[in-house]
Amino acid sequence: MGKGYHSRSPEEFRDYLKQIGDKNKKTRWRQIVILIDLVLVILIFYIGFRALNPGSFQNRTQSDKQIVDGYPTYLSLSREEDDLFQGYFLFIENNTKTEAKFPNPKWTSEFRIQTKQGLLCFQEKIEWDSRTIPAQANGFLYHSVSKKKWKDLVADCRKEIFDEDASIFRSKFRSLDLGFYSQVLIHSEDRTFTFQIKQRPYK
After folding, report:
1. DSSP string for residues in 69-125
2. Per-residue model confidence as pLDDT tens digits over 22-39
3. What is the CB neighbour count within 10 angstroms for residue 61?
4. Distance between the two ends of the chain, CA-based, in angstroms?
5. How far apart are CA 160 and CA 94, in angstroms?
């Protein structure tokens, strides 16, 4: 005969039902534990991927947007590959009904490189080329920096800008400690605006 209930009394029937209930409870708890384990495994993989690929979930080529003299403005890293220079775009949104000329004659601007520890490694004055941005349009100012100037910096600065020890044998986690901040400072009449991009080291 097949498996099932073959009891001869009500007491044995109740025991049989209780055993089935206990088995169902154990099965449900086992499923819950497996689900929790699966969620934890996915979370661990996610954290590991974020650690190894910090740029995959955030825009590393653009600064936060700020309002400068009434114009939304932000800094963006040029994506053009160049071994000698690095370009930076200062994007400006002219949402007014009239054209506007930039930079404002009362601005003074400078470019900086700063380490994650706050060490100021490099700074130079920016002389923007004048541009006119039409009404209800976006435009940009451009600044290019010589990488050779960075290679002549002291070792503490240079090692964060250039990953000189990169190799296939080095652990990925060691490179997570590297990186620097590129900054453009705009000094207007009433305040200073700092646009900052966190960059990975060059190789």
Report:
1. TTEEEEEEE-----SSEEEEEEEEEE-SSS-EEES-TT-EEEEEEEETT--EEEEEE
2. 666 667 777 787 888 888
3. 15
4. 75
5. 36
State the burial class of residue 172 (Cβ atoms within 10 Å of its Cβ: 0-12, 13-18, 19+): exposed
Say how far apart CA 126 and CA 109 lie, in whole Å: 5
**CA 182/CA 120 separation, integer angstroms:** 10
Of the pLDDT bands very low, low, confident and very high (cuts 50, 70, 90), residue 6 is low
Question: Does 55 have pLDDT greater than 80?
Answer: no
Residue with tokens 């700074």: 123
How many other β-carbons are positioned within 10 Å of the β-carbon of residue 60? 13
DSSP string, 129-190: PPEEE-TTEEEEEEEEEEHHHHHTS-HHHHHHHB-TT--TTS-GGGGGG--EEEEEEEE-SS
**pLDDT, tens digit (0-9, with 9 covering 90-100), for 177-199:** 678 999 999 999 889 999 999 99
Spatial separation of the C-alpha atoms in residues 92 and 104, rounded to whole Å:
12
Contacts of 13 (CB under 8 A, 6+ apart): 5, 7
Compute the mean pLDDT over every residue in the chain, rounded to the nearest whole number. 83
